[in-house]
Design goal:
Leucine Aminopeptidase, subunit E, domain 1; 2 domains; alpha/beta; 6-stranded mixed beta sheet; binds ligand BES; Aminopeptidase; 8-stranded mixed beta sheet; binds zinc ion
Length: about 475
């Protein structure tokens, strides 16, 4: 499907249907109000009515806002994909809505059918955004950036949706190398032999029962005059069975998505390198499979992390933090970054705390946390909620036999205690540079919402790209 922006209406004749957003108030004075009323259309949020004779698709909207427009366009494109219309257009009067419209079309129109032998027939070939106001140059820029970020979000979704057999840790390195080649990134891979040399014994323990070798992937985008250096760290559990603390059957289904943090990190570096921002970005991925078997790590084991701290394992299903402990430590030694952001489907507790649509944000710097909260509230289209650290919860990670325990000794505040476990591996000088994003709920959905269909959502790609674009200004 092609999407374009035009500053003329010459192509009008070719366009088979026009999309019009309409509020309840606007409906009252619309030329087509009689026909629309006849069809029971009331301009309710995201409701659709097609007038075939007029070649117009009306989509209801409560009021004009980025969030409402994005989700209305997503409803419109989903509907159009079930019809035989080949081309569509929408008239845009305000450039501040260009990115929402692009996101609505690309993210709302996304489907994943790799494993279907019979693909759904989609007739829609071309979408034209018509922008007739001045400053078309800026409009083109906004449009191109939005397309790049939305496409990278879909790239992340594709990776998340790939099955654990088709995307195991070794295949992860292949895909990372491919991205590195296509986007001229530097790429370093650490296999198990190199991970041993690096003393990444926490990470290695998690992957020991898997038949696929664990991998630490480091991609970097290094523009000439970088204004800032960013390290991104992603949890890449290509499958999380829970290990010997085995997950119940129903909780194990969907655990191919436990690599979503790693997939987001690749999506972000893809976007930033294509946007050619003057920001150096490093993506670190811990690609590991958490399985069972005679070689599996066990509850009661004590692991020595790369940092040197010992970790008492009381639950092998709290594996993501063990992998991240080593990858965070490695990343901090390799790159002296201005900001360190980790993305992880870390805890079910985060979904309990903030709901399944929202990313949980944790860290020490009020200023940095505020920046992301503002971003989420304003324009990124992703939901973020702050979960506050405190010293009392930190005590719950105390171990009687090792330096720290991999689970809390109390059943409450699980998302925060997981964040505090990671905090233990953040160097003192980096405390205010680091933010942890728990995307356990937001990264994957089995019931469509907003611009997200079934499966991976690409959580993290949009808000982080938007944050880095602001940093580039
Ligand atoms: N990958 C899971 C977290 C998760 C759960 C992500 C549901 C998405 C949906 C993680 O490794 C895990 O199993 N965490 C445990 C931690 C517990 C053992 C302290 C959890 O959340 O139950
Ligand atoms: Zn787990
Ligand atoms: Zn996990």
């Amino acid at each position: 499907m092609n999407i374009e922006i035009l500053n003329n209406t010459n192509k009008d004749l070719d366009v088979s249907i026009e999309i019009k957003l309409i509020t309840n108030d606007e409906l009252k004075s619309n030329k087509q109000k009689k026909s629309l009323k006849q069809l029971g259309f009331t301009a309710k949020e995201d409701s659709i009515c097609i007038l075939n004779d007029k070649k117009i698709l009306f989509c209801g909207i409560e009021k004009y806002s980025k969030d409402n427009i994005r989700s209305a366009i997503a409803s419109a494109i989903k509907k159009l994909q079930t019809t035989n219309y080949k081309t569509t257009k929408i008239l845009l009067n305000d450039k501040k809505y260009i990115s929402s419209v692009v996101e609505g079309f690309i993210l709302g129109g996304y489907t994943y059918e790799n494993y279907k032998t019979k693909k759904t027939k989609k007739s829609l070939r071309n979408i034209s955004l018509i922008y007739l106001q001045d400053d078309f140059k800026t409009a083109i820029q906004l449009f191109t950036n939005a397309v790049t970020i939305a496409d990278s979000t879909c790239y992340t979704r594709d990776l998340v949706n790939t099955t654990p057999e088709d995307l195991n840790p070794v295949i992860f390195t292949k895909l990372a190398k491919q991205l590195a080649k296509e986007n001229s990134l530097e790429c370093t891979i650490l296999n198990e032999k190199s991970l041993k040399k690096e003393n990444c014994y926490a990470m290695l323990a998690v992957g020991r029962a898997s038949r696929h070798e664990s991998q630490l992937i480091h991609l970097s985008y290094k523009p000439k005059n970088a204004k800032k250096i960013i390290s991104l760290i992603g949890k890449g559990l290509t499958y999380d069975s829970g290990g010997l603390s085995l997950k119940p059957a129903t909780s194990m289904v969907t655990m191919k998505m436990d690599k979503a943090g790693a997939c987001a990190v690749l999506g972000i570096i893809k976007a930033i390198s294509e946007l050619q921002l003057d920001i150096e970005v490093h993506a670190f991925v811990g690609a590991v499979e958490n399985m069972i078997g005679g070689d599996a790590y066990k509850p009661d084991d004590v692991l020595r992390s790369r940092k040197g701290d010992t970790i008492e394992v009381r639950n092998t299903d709290a594996e993501g933090r063990l992998v991240l402990a080593d990858v965070l430590d490695y990343a901090q030694d390799k790159v002296n970054a201005d900001y360190i952001f980790d993305f992880a489907t870390l805890t079910g507790a985060c979904m309990v705390a903030v709901g399944q649509y929202t990313t949980g944000l944790m860290g020490h710097s009020t200023k940095l946390k505020h920046a992301f909260m503002m971003k989420a509230a304003s324009d990124s289209g992703e939901l973020i909620a702050h979960l506050p650290f405190n010293k009392h919860l930190k005590k719950q990670l105390k171990s009687e036999i090792a330096d720290i325990c991999n689970i809390s000794n109390k059943p409450y505040g699980g998302a925060i205690t997981a964040g505090l476990f990671l905090d233990n591996f953040i160097k003192e000088k980096n405390k205010d540079k680091w933010i942890h994003f728990d995307i356990a709920g937001s990264a994957y959905t089995e019931s469509p919402w907003d611009v997200n269909g079934y499966g991976g959502t690409g959580a993290g790609v949009r808000f982080m790209s938007s944050f880095l674009m602001d940093l580039n200004k």
